Recover the amino acids of this structure.
C-alpha cells in the first residue's frame, strides 16, 4: 500500500519549499477592539446586512469547516474549501503536475474541467475511455498507466453518463502499488443510493474525494466546493490557495444551509422520483433509442436524431445539453431533472415531435 510519504513525494518540489503568503488574519487571529491591520474601510460597507462585509473573511473558514466536519463525521483538517470544486481541481493539478512534463488520466466521457485545467497548466492528458455498454472502468489499462501519471480523475456518479463506478474497481485502483493520486468526484453523490468514499479516507492516503454545494444543496451561484483528503495534502492545498478564496457571504450562507439538510433531503427525494417518472415516460417515445440508468439528477438519453430534437426543444424554450460529440455518446442529450411541471413541458414537447 502507498504511504502518505510516497504521495507527498509526488508534489512539485518548489511547492514544498514555498513560503506561503501570510495574511493580516494569519498574523493576528484572536479578538481585539481595534483592527488597524488590513487596510479595510473602518466605517462599514454600503450594504445593509448583519455580516460585516467591510472586513476580510476568515481565510481558514474554521467555523464552516467545523460544521462540515461534524455533519460528515470527519475531522476539520481533512477538509479543503474551494471557490467551487473547480478551484480544488485546478489546485490539485498545480500541486502535483509539472507543466510540460507530467500527465493526468481521465476516463471519458466525463466532466470536462479535468482536461481543461490540465491544458491550462500545459499538463498532458491521457484518455482511458470507460468501457461500453455500461460505462465501466478499464482497470487493467488504468493500472498500467498509473505509475507514469500524477492524478487519476474518476467521477462517480459520472457526468454525463449518470452511472456509479464500481466500488470494487475503485478499491483495486486505490490498492494498486503506485503513488498516483486517485480523485473521486462525488458532485452527484447526494442523488445516489451508494455511500460516499469519505469513510475510506483514513485507509487510503492517495484518495481525494470531491463534493460540492452546487448541485443537491442548490448553491451553484455561491461557488463552494469541498475536497477531502489526508491532512498533509489538505495543508498543501491551503498553502497554495488564494488567501481569501471563500467570501464572507458564502461562508455564512453555507453554515445556514447546513441547518436545513432536511429540506435538501426532501428535494433530493422529489428529484429521484421525477427521474424515475421521466425515465418511464421517455421509454414510451418513438424518438428515444436508449435511456442510461442514472444515479444523478440528470439522465443521458440516446435519440434517433439528437441534433433535430435539440433544435426542436430549443424552439419550445427548453434547453438540454448536447453531448453527442463526447466519446461513446453519439446522438446523446443530457437532460437535467427539473421541477414536475418543467419535466411535463419537456415530455409534452417530445410527444409533439
Ligand atoms: C457540477 C460538477 C461539479 C461542480 O463544480 P463546482 O465548481 O463545485 O460548481 C464538479 N464535478 C462534476 C463532475 C460536476 O458535474
Amino acid at each position: 500500500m502507498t504511504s502518505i510519504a510516497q504521495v507527498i513525494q509526488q508534489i512539485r518540489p518548489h511547492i514544498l519549499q514555498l513560503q506561503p503568503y501570510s495574511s493580516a488574519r494569519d498574523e493576528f487571529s484572536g479578538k481585539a477592539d481595534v483592527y488597524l491591520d488590513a487596510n479595510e474601510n473602518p466605517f462599514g460597507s454600503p450594504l445593509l446586512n448583519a455580516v460585516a462585509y467591510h472586513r476580510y473573511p476568515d481565510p481558514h473558514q474554521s467555523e464552516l469547516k467545523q460544521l462540515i466536519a461534524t455533519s460528515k463525521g470527519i475531522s476539520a483538517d481533512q477538509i479543503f474549501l474551494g471557490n467551487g470544486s473547480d478551484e480544488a481541481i485546478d489546485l490539485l493539478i498545480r500541486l502535483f503536475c509539472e507543466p510540460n512534463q507530467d500527465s493526468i488520466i481521465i476516463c471519458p466521457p466525463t466532466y470536462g474541467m479535468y482536461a481543461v485545467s490540465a491544458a491550462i497548466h500545459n499538463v498532458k492528458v491521457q484518455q482511458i475511455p470507460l468501457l461500453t455498454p455500461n460505462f465501466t472502468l478499464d482497470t487493467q489499462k488504468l493500472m498500467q498507466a498509473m505509475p507514469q501519471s500524477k492524478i487519476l480523475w474518476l467521477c462517480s456518479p459520472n457526468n454525463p453518463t449518470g452511472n456509479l463506478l464500481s466500488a470494487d474497481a475503485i478499491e483495486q485502483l486505490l490498492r494498486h502499488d503506485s503513488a498516483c493520486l486517485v480523485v473521486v468526484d462525488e458532485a452527484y453523490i447526494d442523488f445516489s443510493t451508494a455511500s460516499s468514499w469519505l469513510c475510506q479516507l483514513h485507509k487510503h492516503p492517495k484518495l481525494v474525494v470531491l463534493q460540492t454545494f452546487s448541485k443537491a444543496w442548490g448553491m451553484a451561484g455561491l461557488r463552494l466546493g469541498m475536497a477531502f483528503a489526508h491532512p498533509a495534502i489538505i495543508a498543501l492545498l491551503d498553502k497554495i490557495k488564494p488567501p481569501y478564496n471563500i467570501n464572507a457571504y458564502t461562508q455564512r450562507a453555507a453554515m445556514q444551509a447546513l441547518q436545513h439538510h432536511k429540506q435538501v433531503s426532501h428535494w433530493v427525494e422529489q428529484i429521484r422520483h421525477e427521474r424515475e417518472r421521466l425515465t418511464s415516460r421517455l421509454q414510451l417515445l418513438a424518438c428515444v433509442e436508449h435511456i442510461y440508468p442514472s444515479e444523478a439528477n440528470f439522465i443521458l438519453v440516446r435519440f434517433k436524431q439528437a441534433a433535430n430534437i435539440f433544435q426542436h426543444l430549443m424552439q419550445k424554450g427548453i434547453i438540454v445539453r448536447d453531448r453527442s460529440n463526447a466519446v461513446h455518446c453519439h446522438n446523446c442529450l443530457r437532460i437535467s431533472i427539473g421541477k414536475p411541471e418543467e419535466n411535463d413541458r419537456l415530455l409534452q414537447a417530445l410527444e409533439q415531435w
